[in-house]
Amino acid sequence: MPTVSFTRALARFLEAPSAEVDGDTVGEALVAVFASRPALRGYVLDDQGALRRHVAVYVNGRLVSDRVRLSDPVGASDEIHVFQALSGG
Amino acid sequence: MADRLHVATRKGLFELARGGGRWEVAEAQFLGDPVSAVLADAEGVVYAALDLGHFGAKLWRRDAGGAWRELAAPAFPPKPADDEADPHPWSLGKIWVLEPGGVPGCLWAGTMPGGLFRSDDRGQSWSLNEALWHMPERRQWAGVAGGEQPGIGSVLVDPRDPSDIRIGVSTAGVWASTDEGRSWRNINRGMYAEYMPPELREEPIAQDVHRLARCAAHPEIVWCQHHNGVFRSKDAGATWHELTAIRPSKFGFAVAAHPRDPETAWFVPAVKDERRVPVDGEVVVARTRDGGHSFEVLRNGLPQHHAYDLVWRHALAVDDSGERLAMGSTSGGLWISEDGGDSWMMPEMRLPPIAAVRFAPV
Q1: Interface membership of A13 toward B (CB under 8 Å)
Q2: B346 min Cα distance to partner chain A (Å)
Q3: In angstroms, rounded to a whole number, what is the distance separating the alpha carbons of residues B200 and B341?
Q4: Which of B4-8, B277-281, B317-321 bottoms out in mean pLDDT, i.e. has the lowest?
């Protein structure tokens, strides 16, 4: 199962521990995380479900290409990192 | 008179308490995070809206005697897939103003990109006012200067009738609902926009209403600091008369209305839109006590030498007595008056840039 981990910058606001979840895409993996931590969703995604402008998501160190539908594929051993983008200041 | 003041800044929320004639910080919360709006209600509940650069707009509440906890922030419904014509995002940008709805548990939130949200459970959950959002005219709303998104910066609920609501929009004029938000009309007449071509100069929707303030005891009296002038309405925002006596300039953002005296209001003028600093580097407050026929320029206790403080829309407040005022600036200046603006004191603190000040009701 892919692993999703979150920037420690979120710890000031809410708990966001790493998690191993089911999912074949970035979006499915995030949905699986948010199912158990619904408050986290709004920190990562905007109201339409796209990545927030100043949030960056990497799969095995590469930025995802689809920030709107989150369709980048992920495999069982992949690591997904959710970070704040430096564009946000 | 109010002895608690909430100050929302670029780097945290500061609660000031008055004791022994002095104002001191009683609590600093959300240190390091931008706070875009704050509301303290009569039950001792405080609401704070955060504008996190990376993680979006958030909403927190502190109950009387309790701890801060996060609430669900207002959120837009899914945008229809076939709707590509809407120039504005269907996603919360910033909570710009929070106001009590006049009935227990009810709150209104004015936001960027122009959504008006309502909660009936003290902020636990929110719903978009769809009637306003789906009006075709809403797509003509223009952005706040320097940004692309329109913002609802003022929400006025008639204290006599909570179903009667006015909102002020940058940039879309004044909108009214008399049926609790089920229908809306763009009502303002009599304003003019110097920044528009001549044929659009008096268009109601083109008016950049920086801030509205209403006399609580005489709700039909509404004051407006507009992008290029100061106006007053005697019919709850429908028709407006410019107050040309304003000094030392007619540009500014903030206005506060006396809670009982319909003739008294305060403004904080700045040079003009393309030079947003105090006139001659002197921070002053303009006060009228005769309905805007004349203004006094108040400066006692305010910086008068190379001061470049700007006071934003929500950074001037008056308490329920009409005697205590607070004013915060983009440079972090905070001044409090306990005599209706005649004199001002600066508490001993250096705060971050201030977005909003709000007294807690007594």
Answers
A1: yes
A2: 31
A3: 37
A4: B277-281
